[in-house]
Design goal:
Helices cover 39% and strands 17% of the residues. With 244 residues, the chain is an alpha/beta fold. The protein is globular and about 50 Å long. The mean pLDDT is 91.
Length: 244
């Protein structure tokens, strides 16, 4: 195991489950001090990481986190903006509340978190946003979720331009179907969930779901000095699904 992040401080949002937890573990295994955020009530899942209770849509909370880090004289070498929600609904059934909840969490929350953390980004810091191939493939019932992730992907390009003068980079990792607890939160019963999973898997040329560790390894690559020439880019990790 390499030690690419020795003496570095990293923030992972939504770091107590799924992709976020796998990435936090990977950073720690390579020497980083890892801060994770989690919604209130998730403190028992922090696995010994430094924990900040923060909902991804909580803009005042994000500002408080940035101010706390600044007051303590701490800086961040990498940030993985991972926390988000995925709730699907058809055009007919989608509600304004679903739109607001999704965009407040996936797009607005991410933007204002980065704004709040800008003063504490170390020289050469890397920000990685968790996108999704849903922004590209037109999956039925995913219009609101996909639009929120498309906004995030676009945001990375603009923020890269704004942050480069202080030496910070912004990139996106966009997973395809990955085995995470997120699929269990889509509101399906067990049989329906199994059918949906099989249907999705059939659309992946590699014939399987990805793993959280495969996504984590890409996040670490984008966060490490080895990727210093990668700026404002989206890396799709989907087993070829979006190429069909």
């Amino acid at each position: 195991m390499s030690n690419r992040f020795a003496h570095k401080t990293v923030l992972v949002t939504g770091g107590t489950s799924g992709i976020g937890l796998a990435t936090a573990r990977a950073f720690r295994a390579e020497g980083a001090h890892v801060i994770v955020t989690a919604r209130p009530g998730k403190a028992h899942e922090a696995e010994g990481f430094e924990l900040v209770q923060l909902d991804a849509s909580d803009v005042p909370g994000a500002r408080a986190l940035g101010a706390h880090l600044a007051a303590a004289g701490r800086t961040l070498d990498a940030v993985f903006v991972n926390a988000g929600i995925a709730e699907f609904a058809s055009l007919t059934d989608a509600s304004e509340e679903l739109w607001d909840r999704t965009f407040n969490t996936n797009a607005k929350g991410a933007f204002f978190l980065i704004q709040a953390l800008r003063p504490v980004l170390a020289k050469g810091a890397s920000i990685v946003l968790n996108g999704s191939i849903n922004a590209h493939i037109g999956m039925p019932n995913s219009a609101i979720y996909a639009a929120s992730k498309a906004a995030l992907i676009s945001m990375a390009k603009t923020l890269s331009t704004e942050l480069l003068p202080q030496g910070a980079r912004v990139n996106v990792v966009s997973p395809g179907p990955v085995t995470t607890p997120l699929y269990g939160k889509l509101g399906f019963d067990a049989d329906t969930l199994k059918q949906v999973a099989a249907q999705i898997q059939g659309q992946v040329p590699l014939g399987r779901f990805g793993t959280v560790d495969e996504i984590a390894s890409t996040v670490l690559h984008l966060s490490a000095p080895e990727s210093a020439f990668i700026v404002g880019t989206e890396i799709i990790v989907d087993g070829g699904m979006s190429q069909l």
